[in-house]
Amino acid sequence: MSDISRVGRRKFLVTAGVAATGSVLLKGCLGNPPSSTAPTGGAPAPGPVAAGDAPEVTTAKLGYLPIVESAPLIIAKEKGFFAKYGMTGVEVAKQANWASARDNVAIGSAGGGIDGGQWQMPMPHLISEGIITNGKKVPMYVLAQLITQGNGIAVSNAHAGKGLGLDISKAADYIKGYPASQGRKFKAAFTFPNGNQDFWIRYWFAAGGVDPDKDIELLTVPPSETVQGMRTGSMDAFSTGDPWPYRIVADKIGFLPALTYQIWAGHPEEYLAMRADWVDAHPKATKAILKAVMEAQQWADKPENRAELVQICSARNYFNISPAILTGPFEGRYSLGDGKPDINDFKAGPLYWTDSKGSVSYPYKSHDLWFLTESLRWGFHKDKLKDFDTVKRLVDSVNREDLWREAAKEAGFSDIPSSTSRGVETFFDGVKFDPANPEAYLKSLKIKRV
Ligand code: CA
Question: How many domains does the chain have?
Answer without folding.
Answer: 2
